[in-house]
Amino acid sequence: MYFRKILKLKKMKIRIYSVVLLSVFISGLFSCSNNSTEMYKNITGKAGEMIVVISEQSWNGEPGKVLRETLAQPQLALPQDEPIFDLVDVPHAAFKSIFKSTRNIIQTSISSNVEKEEVKFTDDVWAYPQATVQITAKTPDRFVELFSENRDKIISYFISAEKERLTMNYNQYYEKGVYNILDRDFEVTMKVPPGFQIAKEAEDFIWYKYETPEISQGVIFYSYPYVSDSAFTSNYQIRIRDSLLKTHVPGPRDGSYMSTEKRIEPIVNVFKHNGNYATEMRGLWRVENDFMGGPYVSIAELDTDKQRVLVAFGYVYAPSKDKRNFIRQVEAMIYSLKLNNQEENDKLNRQTEMEVTIEG
Asked: From what superkingdom does this record's organism come (predicted)?
Protein backbone atom coordinates (compact mmCIF):
# COMPACT_ATOMS: atom_id res chain seq x y z
CA MET A 1 0.00 0.00 0.00
CA TYR A 2 1.15 3.52 -0.80
CA PHE A 3 0.87 4.82 2.76
CA ARG A 4 2.14 1.67 4.52
CA LYS A 5 5.49 3.17 5.46
CA ILE A 6 4.67 6.82 5.18
CA LEU A 7 5.30 7.59 8.85
CA LYS A 8 8.65 5.82 8.76
CA LEU A 9 10.02 8.62 6.59
CA LYS A 10 10.19 10.85 9.66
CA LYS A 11 12.81 8.53 11.14
CA MET A 12 15.13 8.55 8.14
CA LYS A 13 18.60 9.94 8.61
CA ILE A 14 18.90 13.59 7.68
CA ARG A 15 22.62 13.32 6.90
CA ILE A 16 22.03 11.99 3.38
CA TYR A 17 19.94 15.07 2.52
CA SER A 18 22.76 17.50 3.25
CA VAL A 19 25.15 15.53 1.08
CA VAL A 20 22.64 15.46 -1.76
CA LEU A 21 22.79 19.24 -1.82
CA LEU A 22 26.57 19.17 -1.45
CA SER A 23 26.61 16.99 -4.56
CA VAL A 24 25.27 19.93 -6.59
CA PHE A 25 28.61 21.61 -6.11
CA ILE A 26 30.77 18.49 -6.43
CA SER A 27 29.06 17.57 -9.72
CA GLY A 28 30.82 20.47 -11.39
CA LEU A 29 34.15 19.02 -10.31
CA PHE A 30 33.18 15.58 -11.56
CA SER A 31 32.15 16.82 -14.99
CA CYS A 32 35.31 18.87 -15.49
CA SER A 33 37.86 16.54 -13.94
CA ASN A 34 38.66 14.64 -17.12
CA ASN A 35 39.51 16.63 -20.22
CA SER A 36 41.52 13.84 -21.84
CA THR A 37 40.64 12.55 -25.27
CA GLU A 38 41.79 9.07 -24.32
CA MET A 39 39.31 6.38 -25.32
CA TYR A 40 37.53 4.54 -22.50
CA LYS A 41 35.16 1.63 -22.31
CA ASN A 42 31.59 2.60 -21.60
CA ILE A 43 30.50 2.01 -18.04
CA THR A 44 28.39 -1.04 -17.24
CA GLY A 45 25.89 -1.88 -14.53
CA LYS A 46 22.52 -0.49 -13.54
CA ALA A 47 21.91 3.01 -12.28
CA GLY A 48 22.54 3.15 -8.54
CA GLU A 49 24.68 0.02 -8.52
CA MET A 50 28.04 0.03 -6.69
CA ILE A 51 30.82 -2.55 -6.53
CA VAL A 52 32.66 -2.82 -3.21
CA VAL A 53 36.01 -4.60 -3.55
CA ILE A 54 36.62 -6.03 -0.09
CA SER A 55 37.67 -9.26 1.63
CA GLU A 56 34.99 -11.50 3.04
CA GLN A 57 36.33 -11.02 6.55
CA SER A 58 36.19 -7.24 6.27
CA TRP A 59 32.75 -7.29 4.63
CA ASN A 60 31.38 -9.35 7.52
CA GLY A 61 33.18 -7.16 10.07
CA GLU A 62 33.03 -3.50 11.07
CA PRO A 63 34.28 -2.12 7.71
CA GLY A 64 31.44 -3.84 5.87
CA LYS A 65 28.95 -2.78 8.48
CA VAL A 66 29.80 0.92 8.20
CA LEU A 67 29.77 0.69 4.40
CA ARG A 68 26.30 -0.87 4.39
CA GLU A 69 24.88 1.46 7.03
CA THR A 70 26.04 4.50 5.05
CA LEU A 71 25.83 3.60 1.37
CA ALA A 72 22.74 1.38 1.62
CA GLN A 73 20.77 3.57 4.02
CA PRO A 74 17.25 4.50 2.85
CA GLN A 75 16.89 7.16 0.16
CA LEU A 76 15.02 10.13 1.56
CA ALA A 77 11.41 10.96 0.74
CA LEU A 78 10.27 7.75 -0.93
CA PRO A 79 7.04 5.97 0.01
CA GLN A 80 8.93 2.73 0.72
CA ASP A 81 12.48 1.92 1.79
CA GLU A 82 15.03 1.85 -1.03
CA PRO A 83 18.80 2.11 -0.53
CA ILE A 84 20.68 5.07 -1.93
CA PHE A 85 22.98 2.52 -3.63
CA ASP A 86 22.69 -1.19 -4.43
CA LEU A 87 25.91 -2.67 -3.02
CA VAL A 88 27.62 -5.73 -4.49
CA ASP A 89 30.63 -7.02 -2.53
CA VAL A 90 33.40 -8.55 -4.64
CA PRO A 91 36.54 -10.24 -3.18
CA HIS A 92 39.86 -8.82 -4.35
CA ALA A 93 40.76 -11.98 -6.28
CA ALA A 94 37.47 -11.84 -8.20
CA PHE A 95 37.83 -8.19 -9.20
CA LYS A 96 38.44 -8.86 -12.89
CA SER A 97 37.64 -6.96 -16.07
CA ILE A 98 33.96 -7.87 -15.89
CA PHE A 99 33.63 -5.72 -12.76
CA LYS A 100 36.18 -3.02 -13.59
CA SER A 101 33.84 -1.21 -15.99
CA THR A 102 31.11 -0.80 -13.35
CA ARG A 103 29.93 2.79 -12.96
CA ASN A 104 30.60 3.12 -9.21
CA ILE A 105 33.44 1.33 -7.43
CA ILE A 106 34.85 1.39 -3.91
CA GLN A 107 38.21 -0.37 -3.50
CA THR A 108 39.41 -1.23 -0.03
CA SER A 109 42.85 -2.22 1.23
CA ILE A 110 43.11 -3.07 4.92
CA SER A 111 46.56 -4.35 5.86
CA SER A 112 49.46 -3.59 8.17
CA ASN A 113 51.55 -3.35 5.00
CA VAL A 114 49.65 -0.28 3.78
CA GLU A 115 52.15 2.56 3.37
CA LYS A 116 49.72 5.48 3.33
CA GLU A 117 46.29 5.58 4.90
CA GLU A 118 43.99 7.67 2.74
CA VAL A 119 40.72 8.11 0.90
CA LYS A 120 41.32 8.81 -2.78
CA PHE A 121 38.76 9.90 -5.40
CA THR A 122 39.50 9.09 -9.05
CA ASP A 123 37.35 9.47 -12.16
CA ASP A 124 37.39 7.17 -15.19
CA VAL A 125 39.96 4.59 -14.09
CA TRP A 126 38.71 1.71 -16.26
CA ALA A 127 35.63 3.13 -18.00
CA TYR A 128 33.78 6.37 -18.72
CA PRO A 129 32.06 8.08 -16.99
CA GLN A 130 33.16 6.17 -13.91
CA ALA A 131 33.52 7.15 -10.24
CA THR A 132 35.93 5.26 -7.99
CA VAL A 133 37.03 5.67 -4.38
CA GLN A 134 40.08 3.91 -2.95
CA ILE A 135 40.28 3.55 0.85
CA THR A 136 43.51 2.25 2.38
CA ALA A 137 43.99 1.61 6.09
CA LYS A 138 46.27 -0.42 8.35
CA THR A 139 43.50 -1.84 10.54
CA PRO A 140 39.72 -2.30 10.43
CA ASP A 141 39.34 0.36 13.14
CA ARG A 142 41.35 2.87 11.09
CA PHE A 143 39.23 2.03 8.04
CA VAL A 144 36.08 2.86 9.97
CA GLU A 145 37.63 6.13 11.18
CA LEU A 146 38.76 7.16 7.69
CA PHE A 147 35.43 6.28 6.13
CA SER A 148 33.45 8.05 8.85
CA GLU A 149 35.54 11.21 8.48
CA ASN A 150 34.88 11.27 4.73
CA ARG A 151 31.39 9.75 4.52
CA ASP A 152 29.62 12.93 3.38
CA LYS A 153 32.18 13.56 0.66
CA ILE A 154 32.02 9.93 -0.48
CA ILE A 155 28.23 9.89 -0.76
CA SER A 156 28.22 13.28 -2.49
CA TYR A 157 30.83 12.13 -4.98
CA PHE A 158 28.85 9.09 -6.08
CA ILE A 159 25.47 10.86 -6.12
CA SER A 160 27.02 13.63 -8.22
CA ALA A 161 28.38 11.04 -10.63
CA GLU A 162 24.94 9.48 -11.04
CA LYS A 163 23.35 12.87 -11.69
CA GLU A 164 26.10 13.94 -14.08
CA ARG A 165 25.61 10.83 -16.24
CA LEU A 166 21.93 11.64 -16.64
CA THR A 167 22.70 15.28 -17.38
CA MET A 168 25.17 14.26 -20.07
CA ASN A 169 22.49 12.17 -21.76
CA TYR A 170 19.90 14.96 -21.56
CA ASN A 171 22.34 17.49 -23.00
CA GLN A 172 22.79 15.28 -26.04
CA TYR A 173 19.22 14.04 -26.53
CA TYR A 174 16.36 16.20 -25.31
CA GLU A 175 12.78 17.06 -26.22
CA LYS A 176 13.13 20.20 -28.33
CA GLY A 177 9.39 20.95 -28.27
CA VAL A 178 9.38 21.40 -24.50
CA TYR A 179 12.73 23.19 -24.58
CA ASN A 180 11.54 25.73 -27.16
CA ILE A 181 8.26 26.54 -25.39
CA LEU A 182 10.02 27.13 -22.07
CA ASP A 183 12.51 29.33 -23.87
CA ARG A 184 9.80 31.33 -25.63
CA ASP A 185 7.12 31.65 -22.96
CA PHE A 186 9.08 31.55 -19.70
CA GLU A 187 12.51 32.78 -20.80
CA VAL A 188 14.20 29.74 -19.28
CA THR A 189 15.53 26.46 -20.62
CA MET A 190 15.30 22.93 -19.29
CA LYS A 191 16.31 19.66 -20.93
CA VAL A 192 14.06 16.64 -20.62
CA PRO A 193 14.38 13.34 -22.53
CA PRO A 194 12.59 12.75 -25.83
CA GLY A 195 9.03 11.58 -25.39
CA PHE A 196 7.89 14.21 -22.89
CA GLN A 197 4.67 15.83 -24.02
CA ILE A 198 2.95 19.00 -22.90
CA ALA A 199 -0.18 18.15 -20.94
CA LYS A 200 -1.36 21.69 -20.19
CA GLU A 201 -0.33 25.30 -20.57
CA ALA A 202 -1.76 28.28 -18.72
CA GLU A 203 -0.55 31.70 -17.64
CA ASP A 204 2.79 31.27 -15.85
CA PHE A 205 2.18 27.52 -15.77
CA ILE A 206 3.13 24.49 -17.86
CA TRP A 207 2.90 20.75 -17.24
CA TYR A 208 4.80 18.21 -19.32
CA LYS A 209 5.02 14.49 -18.73
CA TYR A 210 6.15 11.11 -20.02
CA GLU A 211 3.86 8.13 -19.53
CA THR A 212 3.89 4.40 -20.17
CA PRO A 213 1.36 1.80 -19.02
CA GLU A 214 3.55 1.24 -15.93
CA ILE A 215 5.01 4.61 -14.90
CA SER A 216 4.50 8.34 -15.17
CA GLN A 217 7.15 11.04 -14.80
CA GLY A 218 6.32 14.69 -15.00
CA VAL A 219 7.49 18.23 -14.42
CA ILE A 220 5.20 21.05 -13.45
CA PHE A 221 6.84 24.42 -14.03
CA TYR A 222 5.38 27.72 -12.87
CA SER A 223 6.28 31.13 -11.52
CA TYR A 224 4.87 33.59 -9.02
CA PRO A 225 5.87 37.11 -7.89
CA TYR A 226 8.66 37.57 -5.39
CA VAL A 227 7.24 39.98 -2.84
CA SER A 228 9.29 39.12 0.23
CA ASP A 229 11.47 36.41 1.72
CA SER A 230 8.30 34.64 2.86
CA ALA A 231 7.84 33.58 -0.77
CA PHE A 232 10.39 30.83 -0.09
CA THR A 233 8.93 29.39 3.12
CA SER A 234 7.68 25.83 2.78
CA ASN A 235 4.12 26.74 3.81
CA TYR A 236 3.91 29.51 1.22
CA GLN A 237 5.37 27.33 -1.52
CA ILE A 238 2.99 24.45 -0.75
CA ARG A 239 -0.01 26.77 -0.66
CA ILE A 240 0.85 28.17 -4.10
CA ARG A 241 1.61 24.71 -5.48
CA ASP A 242 -1.57 23.07 -4.20
CA SER A 243 -3.71 25.88 -5.58
CA LEU A 244 -2.19 25.38 -9.05
CA LEU A 245 -2.35 21.59 -8.86
CA LYS A 246 -6.03 21.66 -7.92
CA THR A 247 -6.78 23.93 -10.86
CA HIS A 248 -4.61 22.35 -13.55
CA VAL A 249 -3.77 18.72 -12.66
CA PRO A 250 -6.90 16.58 -12.37
CA GLY A 251 -6.92 12.99 -11.15
CA PRO A 252 -8.56 9.98 -12.83
CA ARG A 253 -11.93 10.43 -11.09
CA ASP A 254 -14.38 13.30 -11.06
CA GLY A 255 -13.44 15.67 -8.27
CA SER A 256 -9.95 14.25 -7.84
CA TYR A 257 -6.79 16.31 -8.22
CA MET A 258 -3.10 16.28 -7.37
CA SER A 259 -1.90 17.77 -4.09
CA THR A 260 0.96 17.67 -1.59
CA GLU A 261 0.88 14.88 0.98
CA LYS A 262 0.40 16.65 4.34
CA ARG A 263 0.90 13.71 6.70
CA ILE A 264 4.67 14.07 6.56
CA GLU A 265 6.72 17.25 6.58
CA PRO A 266 8.73 17.98 3.46
CA ILE A 267 12.52 18.05 3.63
CA VAL A 268 13.70 21.54 2.71
CA ASN A 269 17.10 23.09 2.38
CA VAL A 270 18.53 26.34 1.03
CA PHE A 271 21.31 26.45 -1.56
CA LYS A 272 22.40 28.30 -4.68
CA HIS A 273 21.44 27.10 -8.12
CA ASN A 274 23.50 28.64 -10.91
CA GLY A 275 24.43 31.34 -8.42
CA ASN A 276 20.80 32.21 -7.60
CA TYR A 277 19.10 31.87 -4.22
CA ALA A 278 17.08 28.64 -4.24
CA THR A 279 15.41 26.03 -2.07
CA GLU A 280 15.00 22.34 -2.69
CA MET A 281 12.00 20.43 -1.34
CA ARG A 282 11.47 16.66 -1.19
CA GLY A 283 8.38 14.83 -0.10
CA LEU A 284 5.32 12.92 -1.26
CA TRP A 285 2.34 13.89 -3.38
CA ARG A 286 -1.11 12.33 -3.53
CA VAL A 287 -4.34 12.58 -5.48
CA GLU A 288 -7.25 13.85 -3.43
CA ASN A 289 -10.32 11.60 -3.63
CA ASP A 290 -8.26 8.78 -5.13
CA PHE A 291 -5.43 6.41 -4.21
CA MET A 292 -2.59 7.61 -6.41
CA GLY A 293 0.63 9.02 -4.97
CA GLY A 294 4.40 9.01 -5.10
CA PRO A 295 7.58 11.01 -4.46
CA TYR A 296 8.48 14.47 -5.68
CA VAL A 297 11.47 16.79 -5.74
CA SER A 298 11.23 20.50 -6.50
CA ILE A 299 13.44 23.53 -6.71
CA ALA A 300 12.29 27.12 -6.26
CA GLU A 301 14.75 29.65 -7.69
CA LEU A 302 14.83 33.41 -7.37
CA ASP A 303 14.97 35.44 -10.58
CA THR A 304 16.06 38.71 -9.01
CA ASP A 305 16.11 40.55 -12.31
CA LYS A 306 12.41 39.90 -12.96
CA GLN A 307 11.38 39.72 -9.28
CA ARG A 308 9.80 36.31 -9.66
CA VAL A 309 10.17 32.83 -8.18
CA LEU A 310 10.55 29.98 -10.66
CA VAL A 311 9.47 26.53 -9.51
CA ALA A 312 10.20 23.18 -11.15
CA PHE A 313 8.20 20.41 -9.46
CA GLY A 314 9.17 16.92 -10.62
CA TYR A 315 7.14 13.86 -9.68
CA VAL A 316 7.00 10.10 -10.23
CA TYR A 317 4.11 7.67 -10.25
CA ALA A 318 5.25 4.06 -10.41
CA PRO A 319 2.98 1.73 -8.41
CA SER A 320 4.55 -1.60 -7.44
CA LYS A 321 7.98 -0.45 -8.68
CA ASP A 322 11.10 0.92 -7.07
CA LYS A 323 11.15 4.69 -7.51
CA ARG A 324 14.67 5.78 -6.58
CA ASN A 325 16.08 5.81 -10.09
CA PHE A 326 12.92 7.38 -11.56
CA ILE A 327 13.02 10.30 -9.12
CA ARG A 328 16.75 10.76 -9.77
CA GLN A 329 15.99 11.06 -13.46
CA VAL A 330 13.42 13.77 -12.78
CA GLU A 331 15.82 15.50 -10.39
CA ALA A 332 18.47 15.71 -13.11
CA MET A 333 15.87 17.27 -15.42
CA ILE A 334 14.80 20.04 -13.07
CA TYR A 335 18.39 20.82 -12.13
CA SER A 336 19.08 21.55 -15.80
CA LEU A 337 16.96 24.70 -15.38
CA LYS A 338 18.72 27.83 -16.64
CA LEU A 339 17.51 31.42 -16.76
CA ASN A 340 17.90 33.27 -20.05
CA ASN A 341 18.67 36.45 -18.12
CA GLN A 342 21.32 34.82 -15.94
CA GLU A 343 23.89 37.49 -16.85
CA GLU A 344 21.66 40.19 -15.36
CA ASN A 345 21.08 38.04 -12.27
CA ASP A 346 24.82 37.50 -11.88
CA LYS A 347 25.35 41.26 -11.73
CA LEU A 348 22.61 41.68 -9.13
CA ASN A 349 23.88 38.72 -7.10
CA ARG A 350 27.40 40.16 -7.04
CA GLN A 351 26.02 43.52 -5.96
CA THR A 352 24.07 41.91 -3.14
CA GLU A 353 27.14 39.98 -1.97
CA MET A 354 29.19 43.18 -1.95
CA GLU A 355 26.55 44.97 0.12
CA VAL A 356 26.45 42.11 2.63
CA THR A 357 30.25 42.15 2.87
CA ILE A 358 30.36 45.91 3.46
CA GLU A 359 27.64 45.76 6.10
CA GLY A 360 29.37 42.81 7.76
From this structure: Bacteria
